[in-house]
Amino acid sequence: MCDLRRLLRAKILLPILILAPLVMGCEDPSNVGLGLIGESGGEPVRITIPASDLPPDISPPVTSNVRSSAGFIVGPSTTLAGTVADPLFGTIDTKAYIDVALPSTASTSFRSGTITSVSLILVPNYVYGDTMATTSLIVSEMDAAWPDADLTADTTLAPGSEVARFDYVYRDTTLVIALPEEWYAARSSVLLSSNIATEFHGFELSTSGPSAVVGFNGTSAIFRISTTTGTGDLVLSKIFTHVSRHDDANIPAGRAVIQDGVGESVALSFEFDEDSLRGAAVSRAVVELFVDQEAMDQVPANFVRPTPPQFDFVGVRADGTSRVLRSSLVGAGVIRFVSTTAVPGEFTILRTIQRAATGNPEFDEYRVRINSAQAAISSILVFDPEAVESTPQAILTVTLGSF
Amino acid sequence: MIRTVYNLNRQVFAVVSMLSAVLVAVAPQASAQSRSDGSVYSRYGLGDRHNFHSSQANAMGVLGTGLHGPAYLNTANPATYADQVFARFTAGIDFLGFRSEDVDGQTSISSGGHIGAIQLGFPLIARKLGFAASISPYTTSGYHAQLGGTLEAEGSEPPTDFEVNYEGDGGLQEAVVGFGYQVTDKLAVGVSASAIWGIIEFGQRTEYARSTDYLLSTEQFTSTRMSGFSGSLGAAFRSPRLVGESDAFTVGAAFSLPVHLSATRTNQVTQGLVLIDTVGSTIEGDLTLPLRLQAGLSYTPSPKWLILADGLFEPWGGFESDYPLLGYEPGQEDAFNSRLRAGAGVQYIPSPRDPFASTLKRTAYRFGLFVDQSYVRPVPDYDLKTYGASTGLSIPTVVPGTYLDLSGQIGFRGESETDLVRDLLYKFSITLNFGERWFLQRRLR
After folding, report:
1. Most buried pick, A298, B58, B263, B343, via CB within 10 A?
2. Which H or E run includes B366?
3. Is the CB of A27 less than 8 angstroms away from the CB of B36?
4. Which ipTM value was assigned to this complex?
């Protein structure tokens, strides 16, 4: 130590010795002092945030579709006809509109003959209501062209002229509707014309009284014209379903309806930006709506009430635009939306809630609606935020901030 | 003789140059890397408060407010800048360690090295007018705590194991430039301006065992960047031959203005430690640090002995911040405690004026005691105090005015009751005080 001169001569040794503490160090972290860091002790916790009630939203879905060369690929391929009187959800009327066209590959030899029969061949793929009741199925001819553009279910078209009316009881087999001779005889020039797509405007299908709403597969439907020289099978060129609801539902207090076709969704508000979540990191989020299964199970004999296949949890911004944040099936009396792994830039339920908890909420409200890839009027009854129990909630697994 | 002095100076210059270069090189890395090597108490407020003004005072447990002499550059009181003979460059490195114990007897240990103060000073008029500048830590925050456990099943939610790591890092630095002027033989005054800036970061990383349940690991990160300016006034009054022929008594005081800090806080939450999805927010705000009052005295009964005592007062009860801090909510009054510090120490040099005495006899031996009441209150109405002792050596080199100072501190803070922890803190410092006559023409000796 005394021979500092030699150390100085070394030039390098002294700086190394002096700087040695910079690279020295050890760390043995434990939970010592954790009680000082945060009120919660810093442990992950589950927080349940109840939803607040908002007025229900009714946004009728688009129920029209135009066939492409490959069929009804995007959008609904089913069209509905009939009336259902649900003791719980009330009466819903539907009318199916279909138009026809010759496929480009079809033979046209039948045009040179005389029409011997015309029929509509429809394949049912959906039913809602009393499957044993008899009703009158009415086939009307559309007198004017109707729009190709996206039509929402509440769009009303000018009524057609009645062509035929007959008794109908739902069966899950192909329905063949033979149109009367006087009708096709009067329109043979139009039906055999190569311009049938523009000169003929299709049919309206409706019923005269409540029994069931039946869905028909637009892709497999056929408008068949038989002549003395052959048969022409015309496919549907476009479809549309009109839906209207009567004001006779019997919804118990504290319940909310999620209904397809009509487009009724449950609108909810969650206080994801409340003070208790300030600075919290959200690791998992589950949003739950509980189904009033007891009320749903009470149906008359022979009555079929289809369960909606899938639900969407949707974030709605102040300007009305929205994004689907998560989709879910219904199971065991609950509609549950569970957060998934976050992907950069992707809107997810977890990212959405995290942004709100960080003080940057993107959405003003949230809606739960039926994922309506197909036209349907399926409904479900859930407990709303005013219910005594089983109210909608979000369960968050979070690590709270230290301040 | 001329050649010898020239060679020695060249050697010392080489060492100092290398040391400076390495310090400059490692400083960014040292400040950028995680320094979670302190006590959990540094999580409160703006972190642990520091006062380093000279290695001499540091080894004696005091600030040095009443220490007035040319042997050391002392930034505790700008009035002392007046009394300089050598141009001085001081750089130090600290090795700081903590052993924390809680009420259950559990312990955690952390330690690490830090760059200490860097000081530069020189006389404009020898022993009349002097300039000094320094950079030193103002506060530091550094800790690492870890918690493991199981989140129990609840309703439809499955149980899962977790581990949470809490880490703090960063602190404020203070840069000071000032002038001291010897008004009369006995009275010196000084003024200095300071800039305070820095970043304090807190992180909280939560990891789950069952990632298959879509339980994303998360990291919460808060970074607060602050900067502001302040100024200080100081005075020192020295009275030689107070009792005997060779004694001297000095009393000094310094006052620093409150500091207004402009700040930007970034709150960031990262979801997923692999698949990164980060959301965050940035908030502008202000903080106001309290004024600082220091007073001290020193007594030199003979050149062999130096006795020092001083105190510090910072009224943190009036601290204001737009941001919440641990232990403080915006608008809260008296959330923090007044900081009080008192220390006293003694220095002994066996042969202070004999250049031919052995190194051991020319070495200064120092010892001191101090008590420091922190400005933070980890629990209501609790005064967090540190009781400590300091000791050190100042080894003279062959270059007049250049010393290698070694010092150590040991202290206790808090107590292991309820949520509190008791810290055993220890610190070892190496400081090179390089002195050289600048602006003077070399003459034959």
Report:
1. B58
2. strand B364-373
3. yes
4. 0.72
